[in-house]
Specification:
By secondary structure, the protein is mostly helical. The chain has a single domain, classed as Amino acid/polyamine transporter I (Up-down Bundle), CATH 1.20.1740. 73% of the residues lie in helices and 0% in strands. The chain has 19 helices and no strands. Helix 2 runs antiparallel to helix 10, helix 4 packs antiparallel against helix 11 and helix 4 crosses helix 18. The longest helix is centred in the N-terminal third of the chain and has 34 residues. The radius of gyration is 22 Å and the shape is globular. The protein starts with 10 loop residues before the first helix and ends in an 8-residue tail after the last helix.
């Protein structure tokens, strides 16, 4: 057993980590939510998508600068440790391992299973025994793929990202052209211009909705020690990946809004995309679209799992976390930390069981496991952005101040979204309790 991870991933895989994790199943069904929150105003909805991208694009620019200067074993842990000390860096890594990647991986297993059963014509795709059995299968399959064949997992990340961009690009291009020919686009914009003064109050909520859709761009930094020429390629991946996601989101949204009147999109809800694709490409489109959604979900799941496996390892090489000597061991054949992978897989399985209990209200209420990490993780980003401003005094004015201030504004939008959640007290309590548990495994080197 070794203790070092080899350089095995190129720039395409790093870009695919950003694009592939951010663009999951939600992008296919966000159009109606944003339009509903802007009272059907297309101009305000497009503005919301642009403002929502602030947290991602400017955050990516800040982390790109981090990536050029700091490289050890895991980007977010390395940057946090450099900024505020070893204990803070450890808690960030512990939080990412226990409350971020693994619960999101569990939910993606369930979502992928659900859409697979929808494709097969299931009557109860959300909560049948088959759904959970298939979710377990996806969990085992993706973790096994990442452990036994990380190169193949990297290729899956790239290929699934390319595949999921196909339907989005087709809807964007064909929908927009069709809308211009049929005057649907012009009618929607004309209606938006006439009503823009009466619906501005809902813009903030729409921005919050889009900001959550952009979450996930940070995952690429978890493999920085395995990216070839990381200090050159990782910054490129963050910036280009964020830009690609932003363009795809806006163009796809405009494509959907060019096929149907905004009022009809709101009325049909999540079914609007099926109506739009059927109108554009024929009756088989909904089935084909479901296949693309499944591939999209698998790509997101693969990126989350790829990241989750590295976090316990990054703590272990610092002699931190549970069983650090074991967690730091790397299998020489696969080049992956075996015990770190097992630890993450077991945590994901635990969260899958908890997600099942939440949906069935086993404990008396529904608990959104996907919402727990949002507030604290973006609060963390704000601290890193402030450290960036204080520390990197060799940068130009725009790079040192304008970029991180815009990133802070974008992060505050997401924090605001979390604070307005009625269950924020419970989420914070759980998060603080998990961080407290993590301190039991922290080793003070001075002592």
């Amino acid at each position: 057993m070794e203790k070092n991870l080899e350089k095995k991933y190129g720039l395409p895989t790093a870009i695919a980590m950003v694009v592939g994790v951010v663009i999951g199943s939600g992008v296919f069904f966000k159009a109606d939510d944003v339009l509903t929150l802007t009272n059907g105003n297309l101009i305000l909805a497009l503005l919301a998508w642009g403002l929502g991208a602030f947290s991602m694009i400017f955050g990516a620019l800040v982390f790109a600068e981090f990536a050029q200067r700091i490289e050890k074993s895991n980007g977010i842990v390395d940057y946090s440790e450099m900024a505020y000390g070893k204990r803070f860096g450890y808690l960030v890594g512990w939080f990412k391992a226990v409350l971020y990647f693994t619960p999101l991986s569990a939910i993606l297993c369930w979502i992928t299973s659900k859409y697979t059963l929808i494709l097969l014509g299931s009557d109860n795709p959300s909560n049948s025994p088959t759904t959970w059995a298939l979710a377990f299968f996806y969990l085992v399959a993706i973790y096994s793929l990442n452990y036994f064949s990380p190169i193949l997992a990297g290729k899956l990340q790239v290929s699934s990202t390319i595949i999921k961009l196909i339907p989005l690009s087709l809807v964007a291009l064909v929908g927009t052209v069709s809308g211009l020919i049929n005057h649907v686009t012009i009618d929607n914009f004309s209606s938006a211009v006439s009503s823009i003064g009466s619906s501005g109050g809902t813009l903030a909520n729409a921005v919050v909705a889009t900001a959550f859709a952009y979450e996930g761009w940070i995952t690429a930094v978890t493999i920085n020690s395995e990216i070839k020429d990381s200090k050159r390629n990782l910054p490129k991946a963050l910036v280009w990946g964020a830009f690609i996601v932003f363009v795809v989101y806006v163009m796809y949204f405009l494509g959907v809004a060019s096929v149907l009147p905004t009022s009809e999109i709101i009325a049909q809800g999540d079914g609007a995309i099926t109506t739009a694709t059927t109108q554009l490409f024929g009756s088989v489109a909904s089935t084909v679209l479901t296949v693309f959604v499944i591939i999209s979900c698998l790509g997101t799941l693969n990126g989350l799992v790829l990241s989750s496996i590295r976090i316990p390892y990054s703590l272990a090489i610092r002699n931190q976390g549970p069983f650090p000597k074991k967690m730091a061991l790397v299998n020489p054949k696969s080049g992956i930390p075996m015990y770190s992978a097992i630890f993450s897989a077991l945590l994901t399985l635990t969260y899958t069981i908890l997600w099942h209990a939440s949906i069935n209200e086993t404990f008396g209420r529904y608990i959104g496991l996907d919402e727990i990490p949002i507030v604290l993780i973006y609060a963390l980003y704000i601290f890193l952005y402030i450290w960036y401003i204080r520390t990197f005094d060799d940068l130009s004015f725009s790079k040192r101040y304008v970029v991180p201030v815009c990133a802070i504004m974008g992060a505050l939008v997401i924090v605001y979204g979390g604070i307005t959640n009625p269950s924020i007290g419970l989420y914070l309590l759980v998060s603080i309790a998990v961080l407290g548990l993590g301190l039991l495994f922290y080793r003070d080197e001075k002592k």
